[in-house]
Amino acid sequence: MHVFVTGASGWIGRATVEELVGAGHEVTGLARSDAAAAALTTQGVHVRRGHLDDPDGLRAAATAADAVIHLANKHDWSNPAASNAAERSAVQAIGDALVGTGKPFLLASGLLTAVTGRPATEDDPSPFHGADSPRGGSENLALEFVDRGVHAVPVRFPPTVHGVGDHGFIAHLADIARAKGVAGYPGDGTNRWAAVHRSDAARAVALSLAKAPAGARVHAVGEQGVPTRVIAEAIGRAAGLPVTSIDPADLTDHFGWLGMFFSRDMTARSSATQQLLGWLPTGPTLVEDIDAGAY
């Protein structure tokens, strides 16, 4: 199968491309820069130069492929509106190109749902609709294409996809701890973050391409929820720093833009995904990665 992958040179993308190539797929990866193009070439991947703000290019690449895996996102936390608009535009362009083809269209999504007081499940719909919502409401937009002959499958990733080389939220938390001289956690530290190792996330994507039915929501979740206090304690051990609670009123001052995320309870189950895909997370846990010096 010829698979077009956006975000192919990114954190999850590189591992996913490795899984796809290993499974015998032909892969074309979207690359914005010379460095990204060179990295993809070393993986035996065809390179298509472009970016998310080029809907015509995305439509052309999707049309030429047998399947699309959309992992790219601007992640511009200083201008979330621009990130949301680019995400929606990209999903719209890819979906339009695949109408009536039955081709698989996997896209990265998040775990935020309308449920509270329990872990999210694959049955919980995303509450986000429209261009002004997080990720531009891209998950629900993609699912609208199922009735138009597109094999759309949202793959929901937890707030941390961890491992050596990760530059995501946990890396930022570790940087903040070193800068502040303390490893902090919000309030009593009982709110939890779901997590998954990068290798397990990549396998979940590859298996979703092969096995997930149209309209299914996939949870690439290895750990249902790690308390934020436990995360801070692991960061403190690794950096040799004291660990302390941060008053909820001071979260933005201490953590900056990350404070609102670190204070959320973002837990999720993946039992239905594991049964559907025959997927069993086997990589290190988040704390094991932190203790081993990944951050």
UniProtKB/TrEMBL annotation:
Domain of life: Bacteria
Residue span(s) of domain NAD-dependent epimerase/dehydratase: 3-214
Positions of region (Disordered): 117-139
MF terms in GO: aldehyde dehydrogenase (NAD+) activity
Pfam family, one: Epimerase
GO cellular component: cytoplasm
PANTHER family membership: NAD(P)-BINDING DOMAIN-CONTAINING PROTEIN-RELATED, PROTEIN YEEZ
Name the record gives this protein: Cyclic nucleotide-binding protein
